[in-house]
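Please check this protein record:
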Amino acid sequence: MKRLLVLIAVFALSAVAADISGNWKATADGPNGSMERTFVFKQDGTKLTGETTSSMMGKSTLMDGKVEGDTVSFTITVKFQDNEMKLSYKGKIVGGNEIKFTVENPAGGNAIQWDAKKTS
């Protein structure tokens, strides 16, 4: 019976979302070369808030953010050439200090892959 309780406790702990709060730096290969973006994540349970900044599109606030297990998702609104675009980020947490994001292109075409690493 004790072993069963221990196994249940281990599975329960593994189902809890990882805490990704902190500063992250991400890179991606874009059509015009390498791009960089920073994230400041604040996590409270499964709720994710924060902001992100890039030299090309400036600062954006995370919306609809959540962390469920090893999955992260949120949206941001960016302004590009006087047009606002909503970008949807979906990612997988790898080893607690890395997130592999996919961002769908709202205009169609290929998705962008971002590799984020925790800096603090």
In short: The beta strands are 22-30, 33-44, 47-54, 58-61, 63-68, 71-80, 83-94, 98-103, 112-118. The radius of gyration is 16 Å. Helices lie at 2-15. Residues 2-118 form a domain with the Lipocalin fold (CATH 2.40.128).
